[in-house]
Amino acid sequence: MFTDSHCHLDFIEFDACRDELIQRCAILNINRFIVPGITAKRWPRVLELCQKYSNALPCLGLHPWWIAKATENDLILLEQLINRHDLAAVGEIGIDGAIDNIEKQTDYFVKQLHIAKKHSLPVVVHHRKSHHLIVPELKKASLEKGGVIHAFSGSYQQAKAYIDMGFKLGIGGTITYPRAIKTIKTVKKLPLDSILLETDAPAMPLEGFQGEVNSPEKVVDVFQQLCSIREESPELLQQAIEQNLQQLFKLD
Ligand SMILES: [Zn+2]
């Protein structure tokens, strides 16, 4: 069984085809989806979707790309929703070094880390050109449940900084691009207990599908690519990834 540990099933790209998509995923043995929320405005959609599809698990968070519009009230609402719903994690949160507003991004990242800690939840972390900003904040927050560094790309040393804090790394379509030499080299060496699979659909299309809407179905292709990079058998990899999911998120 496969899990797409990071896909935005609530996005409008899937509005016209969501039922069929989930059916097609089931045929491919993709039977679980972790769905991160990105803005307070969209949280109700994520919760609604995860009520409709029992194999879709919600996370709620304020994503750094939309942080300019975020308010303290959103953080209050986040805590209220955590108390009322069974969330898999707080996310998608993070710091994106390629856009401005780093100060507010960091402020809201840290505040959401504290909320996750208070409620004993893991976090789903977005990074881009920001390992140097994220690692120190995660160290300070010292989350008991850890979390996942979504769409990880970087060196083994950068990966290790997260793994040492008990974090998993979300491995996605990046490894299908031959030019991602550094990340592929890192993924080859990662400890088995640190790997999760994801697509980030509808974003981050795989190599050969640039410009297209990405789909959670592609988690199988990411897995195949992972198998070609790693030395373990596909069975062992699949088993380890399932264990990692069970360990990180509250799963049945
Ligand atoms: Zn995402």
UniProtKB/TrEMBL annotation:
UniProt keyword Coiled coil, yes or no: no
MF terms in GO: hydrolase activity; oxidoreductase activity
EC number of the protein: 3.1.-.-
InterPro entries linked to this entry: DNase_TatD-rel_CS (IPR018228), Metal_Hydrolase (IPR032466), TatD-like (IPR001130)
Superkingdom of origin: Bacteria
Family: Belongs to the metallo-dependent hydrolases superfamily. TatD-type hydrolase family.
Protein name: TatD family hydrolase
